[in-house]
Amino acid sequence: MVTLHGALATAGVFRPLKRVIEAQERVWVASLTLNPALAIEDAAIRLGDLVAELPPGVNCHLIGHSLGGIIVRWYVQQVLPAGPEAPTVVQTFSLGAPFGGASVAKWIPLRQGRDLVAQSALLSELARGADRSAIPHCSFVGEDDRTGKGDGLSDIGDRIVVPDCGHNGLLFHPLVGSEVVSRILQSRQGDAAPSEPC
C-alpha cells in the first residue's frame, strides 16, 4: 500500500493506520511526503514515480487523506499508464477527500487551494473521468467532517460514512482500519497465484 497525506501535513499522519495494515501478513506500506507547493497534477506524477519503483508483481493499493485522496484518484484516472508494463494498482481509498470541493480551500496555499474550490476545473474533470477507470475505489467520510462541501464522497465505488468522526479522526478510527484491511485481503481472493501485495 502507498499512503498519501493531505495539505499541510506529512507522511507521519498515517503511522497509526500503517501499524494496523502492516499487522497483516505480506502487506507493506510505503509513504510519500509531498512538497506542499506542488499542483495536484504534479503531485500525481510524483506519486506515479514512486509506484513505478515498486518491485514487479506487487499488487498496489493507494490510500489518500483529504487532498491526498484527490491526488490518488487523479493519478489512476489521468496518469497511470496502460498496458502490460503498467504498475498493478488494485484499488484506491480516500479518507475525507473533498471531491465536492473544500470549504477551507481559501486557506490552502497556491494552486492546490484553487483546485479544491467547489466545481473547479480539476474537480469537474475528476468527476467526468470517474467512469474511465476500472480501478475500484472506496471513499470514507467522517460524519462530523466540516472541511468539505457536500458529503465529500466520491461519485464512484463504495461510500462509507464513519459515525462520530471528524476529518483527521479518519486516520485513527478503527472502522477505517478494519475496512481497509478487509478490502485488501478480499482483493487477494480468486488469484490463482497471488502477487505480493503492497
Description:
- The chain has a single domain, classed as 3-Layer(aba) Sandwich (Rossmann fold), CATH 3.40.50.1820.
- Helix content is 32%, strand content 18%.
- With 198 residues, it is an alpha/beta fold.
- It has helices at 15-22, 40-52, 67-79, 110-115, 121-128, 174-188, and strands spanning 2-4, 30-32, 58-65, 88-95, 137-142, 158-162, 196-197.
- The protein is globular and about 40 Å long.
- Helix 3 (67-79) links the parallel strand 3 (58-65) and strand 4.
- Strands 1, 2, 3, 4, 5, 6 and 7 form a 7-stranded parallel beta sheet that branches.
- It is built from 6 helices and 7 strands.
- Helix 2 (40-52) crosses helix 3 (67-79).
Count the beta strands: 7
H/E element string? Answer: EHEHEHEHHEEHE
CATH superfamily: Alpha/Beta hydrolase fold, catalytic domain
Average pLDDT figure: 86
Summarize the amount of helix as a percent range.
25-40%
From the 3D structure, determine the CATH topology: Rossmann fold
CATH arch. level architecture:
3-Layer(aba) Sandwich
How would you summarize the topology of this molecule?
Elements: E1 2-4, H1 15-22, E2 30-32, H2 40-52, E3 58-65, H3 67-79, E4 88-95, H4 110-115, H5 121-128, E5 137-142, E6 158-162, H6 174-188, E7 196-197
Parallel strand pairs: 1-2, 1-3, 3-4, 3-7, 4-5, 5-6
Helix pairs in contact: 2-3
